[in-house]
Amino acid sequence: MANPERVITDGAANMISRVEELAYELTIGEVMSRELKTIAPGTKMGDVMETFRQARISGAPVVSNGVLIGIVSLEDLIRALRESNIEAPVGEYMTRQVMTVNGASPLIEALKVFEQRHIGRLPVVDDNNKLAGIITKGDITSGVMRALQYDYQEEEVRKYRARHLFEDIISDRTSLTLRYKIKHGEFAHGGNASSHIKKALLRLGASPQIARRCGIAIYEAEMNLIIHSTNGGMIRIEIEPNQILMETLDDGPGIADIALAMTPGYSTAPDSIRELGFGAGMGLKNIHRCVDDMYLDSAPGRGTRLEMRIYMQSEEQLGETNHANTTRDH
Amino acid sequence: MKLTELVQIIDGMVLTKGVNLNRDVLGGCGADLMSDVLAYSQPDAVLLTGLCTMQVVRTAMMADVAAIIFVRDKQPNDDIVQLANREKIPLISTVHGMFEVCGRLHCAGLRSLEHAYDEG
């Protein structure tokens, strides 16, 4: 029984939820054993025993003309032995009503059956009900371990590289610049650049709170480019260990009255934009709420430049530089 | 509240495949205006909405939304479902309306994760 006093660390909790996720992400087909011993219904129980011993297995599906008709396990074998009947054919002792699972189903389906039925193995069938493999609890454990290790290595390598990006580069002021071109009117891709930016910041070691604030601000700004620019525009993100500068630039119609544009509820967006859930005049206000500094430069006919800055807390520097006491420019 | 439990309470249908439903949601937030979600929702909320566009999923990604519930039987198109699958954001649809779904979840103990409006 699990000890109720057991302390689960944050790291362990993360692993638990990742394992849970994998139970939904991996399919049964991905972790099952494909090389399986099948047994013909006429085989004698004594020969089954020999097969089990040689293959070091404790159960096998019984197949007749490619069709699964039952399953035979050590328990069946013990019954035959107790009744001194090992000359009997498998058909007499096997379990006929066999639970099967589909190889395309998520792993969780197999886990549920194991939990409810207290059985050791489950034949896996394809969409045409043909036997494709067999899955045991051991297969699930090793499949999940493989996936976890793969995940872990891949993400750790990426994060390590990203976090140490600034470390070995010597300059008076190092920064990383990301640029994205945004097309006017491309609503289907609205938010694409912003999601890349948010992911990049997380990989560089930004806290979820900082990444969320940046993500929300740049998403509103990206939607503004899509909605209000004429020829589209540009997003430019400059990441430094101690601050993130996000900028959008366009050569569109410009804003005549910036104070009015900042007023919650004021919008020039057409109804088609409102149907997308935007254009209600909350965007600039939202941006203002999320960033530490915001500067909007625009005039009719001159286009628009929006500058947004978020400063890191001193303990959470991006890219983990050695120069922990770099001064702020602002 | 576990998402699996939530799906039962609202007679929901899960539209995403291979996305973890065994996770906890801390509360809820209801809006059709995505800017309101971005402005007033807190992380790990389920989002109840009558809007059914790609922007709902994008907004969810930015605002760290735990799952999206489309009310009044709104059915997202394949592109939307695929994006949600890729980003691992569960999509759930229900035939019930916004008020009904909010009410059921609130009665079942799910709290609000919406900030009240403030001048800041």
Plain-language structure description:
The complex is a heterodimer of chains A (330) and B (120). Chain A folds into two domains: 10-142, CBS-domain (Roll), CATH 3.10.580; 171-311, Heat Shock Protein 90, CATH 3.30.565. By secondary structure, chain A is an alpha+beta fold. The radius of gyration of chain A is 31 Å and the shape is elongated. Chain A has twelve helices and ten strands. Chain B is an alpha/beta fold. Chain B has a single domain (3-112), classed as Udp-n-acetylmuramoylalanyl-d-glutamate--2,6- Diaminopimelate Ligase, Chain: A, domain 1. Chain B has helices at 3-9, 34-40, 54-62, 78-87, 98-107; strands at 13-14, 27-30, 45-49, 67-70, 91-93, 111-112. A six-stranded mixed β-sheet of chain B has the order 1-5-4-3-2-6, with helices on both faces. Chain B starts with a helix and ends in an 8-residue tail after the last strand. Classes of the chains: A alpha+beta (330), B alpha/beta (120).
Task: Identify the overall geometry of chain B.
Answer: globular
Overall pLDDT of chain B, averaged?
Answer: 93
The biggest beta sheet of chain B reads: 6 strands, mixed
CATH fold node name of chain B: Udp-n-acetylmuramoylalanyl-d-glutamate--2,6- Diaminopimelate Ligase, Chain: A, domain 1
Topology:
The complex is a heterodimer of chains A (330) and B (120).
Chain A: H1 10-25, H2 28-31, H3 45-55, E1 59-64, E2 67-73, H4 74-82, H5 90-93, E3 101-102, H6 107-117, E4 121-125, E5 131-136, H7 137-163, E6 176-182, H8 192-203, H9 208-228, E7 233-240, E8 243-250, H10 258-262, H11 271-274, H12 283-290, E9 293-298, E10 304-311
Parallel strand pairs in A: 3-4
Antiparallel strand pairs in A: 1-2, 4-5, 6-7, 7-8, 8-10, 9-10
Helix pairs in contact in A: 8-9, 9-12
Chain B: H1 3-9, E1 13-14, E2 27-30, H2 34-40, E3 45-49, H3 54-62, E4 67-70, H4 78-87, E5 91-93, H5 98-107, E6 111-112
Helix pairs in contact in B: 2-3
